[in-house]
Amino acid sequence: LGQYNQQSDVYSWALICWQLLTKASYPFPQENVTWKQFREAVVQQGVRPEIPASCIPSLKVVLFHSWHPDPQRRPS
Questions:
Q1: Do 15 and 27 touch, CB atoms closer than 8 A?
Q2: What is the sign, positive or negative, of the torsion defined by CA atoms of 54, 61, 15, 45?
Q3: Contact 59, 17 (CB under 8 A)
C-alpha cells in the first residue's frame, strides 16, 4: 500500500479513459469522496467503476485488466 509505480499509473490511466467514456462522471457514487475513503474503497474493498455497456468490447477488456486487484497482473 502507498507505493506509486507503473501499475498504479495503469490504474489511473484506465480511470481517465473511463471518465472520457462517461463524459467526466464521478467514478464513485459520492462526489465529495475523501482521499482516505477512495483508497479504502479501491485498495481494501476492491471497488471499481462500472464500465458502460456502450464501451467497445476491446476497451472494456483493457479497462477490466487495468483495474486488476493484483497490481502485478495489470498490463504494462
A1: yes
A2: positive
A3: yes
pTM of the model: 0.79
Length, in residues, of the chain: 76
Per-residue pLDDT of the chain (76 residues; tens, 9 = 90+): 567 789 989 999 999 999 999 987 777 766 677 888 888 888 888 889 989 899 999 999 999 999 999 989 999 8
**Cell numbers standing for residue 5:** 509505480
pLDDT for the residue 63: 96
Task: Give yes or no for a contact between 10 and 65, defined as CB atoms under 8 angstroms apart.
Answer: no
Q: What is the 3-state secondary structure (H, E, C) of the chain?
A: CCCCCHHHHHHHHHHHHHHHHCCCCCCCCCCCCCHHHHHHHHHHCCCCCCCCCCCCHHHHHHHHHHCCCCHHHCCC
